[in-house]
Amino acid sequence: MSRIGRMPVEIPAGVTATLNGNTLTVKGPLGTLTETFRPEINIAIEGNQIIVTRSSDEKEERSLHGLTRALINNMVVGVTKGFEKKLEIVGVGYRVEKQNGKIVLGLGYSHPVIFEEKDGVKFE
Questions:
Q1: Closest by alpha carbon to 5, among 83, 54, 69?
Q2: What is the rounded distance in angstroms from the CA atom of residue 23 to the CA atom of residue 25?
Q3: pTM
Q4: Is residue 61's pLDDT more than 80?
C-alpha cells in the first residue's frame, strides 16, 4: 500500500469538507475548493480526517492512491494557509529590497531584476 496514500488528511478547525459521490468540497477561511476524483479510489470523511483507500491492487489504482491523497491534502492547505514560496538567497554580492509593492533583486546582472505584486500575491 502507498505510504503517502495510507496517511489520513487532518481537517483543521475552521475547515469543512463535504463529499458528494466522488466530488470533494473543502471550505475554509481563504475560500472554497472543489475537485472530482476517479471512481476507483474511495474517499471517506471520518470525524476530522479524510481517509483515502483503493478497491484493488491494480497498477493504475496504486498510482492514483497517493496522488489523490496528496491532492486532497493540498486542497486543505490551500484553504487554510494558501500557497507560499520561500526564496533563499545565499552568497556574497546579492541584494534583495522591497520597494512600494515591488521586489528588487540585485543578482549580479548589469540591471536589477524587478517583480511587481499582482492581485493576491504579497511579498514579505
A1: 69
A2: 7
A3: 0.76
A4: yes
